[in-house]
Amino acid sequence: MPITNAITHPPSLPLIAPSILSADFANLADSCAAMLEAGGDLLHVDVMDGHFVPNLTLGPALCSSLRAALPDVLLDVHLMVTDPQDFVEPFAKAGANHFTFHVEVVADPAAVIDVIHAAGMTAGIAINPPTEAEALDPWVEHADLILVMSVNPGFSGQAFIPEVLEKTRRYAARLRPDQRLQMDGGVSPATAAAVREAGCDLLVAGSAVFGAADPAAVISSLRGVSVASRTV
Length: 232
Known about the structure:
Oligomer: single chain
Helix content: 25-40%
Strand order of the largest sheet: 1-9-8-7-6-5-4-2-3
Structural class: alpha/beta
Strand content: 15-25%
Low-confidence stretches: 228-232
Radius of gyration: 16 Å
Number of strands: 9
Distance between the termini: 8 Å
Largest sheet: 9 strands, mixed
Number of helices: 8
CATH superfamily: Aldolase class I
Shape: globular
């Protein structure tokens, strides 16, 4: 799959981003490649600092290794960290294509987005389930992507929080055709229809796909089609 501007290019069907947090880390490149062969459109890389969230994961070095092993994949990095601006340049140099940070930790998201764009990446803003939707309202037009967390971030395999769908619908009504609406957390064949109906066109899935006996069938189900279909 060639690198294309999947973030700002309106997809004809929802895009599916396997989250590598659920991958086999002993065989990371092969595990991720299998998800792309099964129909995944891009890879979602969760970065945690052990401060903003109670876990510590990944970093630019791993991103760089993925880029070397999978040169044509779109790498979507999601920074669950207290100081995301400190990591823009390292992840850009490591080969990331997209950089999402959390509205809860940045006083001026528009300024951070400018830095991300200057580094050659598209930019996203994420919001946690307990955060009021209004916190993100002033910044929606600035971002290439809005990420609504449907679990409290920090660990994979959590249960989906359906109350966030109201927040999702609020943002979906405001987005331009060149903006994406992403959902992350507890996304599975059981929850994907509601996520799509709320306006999301980029679904992140971790254990649902990496732990599946038939990842292609799961990815097709998440996308809402009977046969795996790439749209990038």
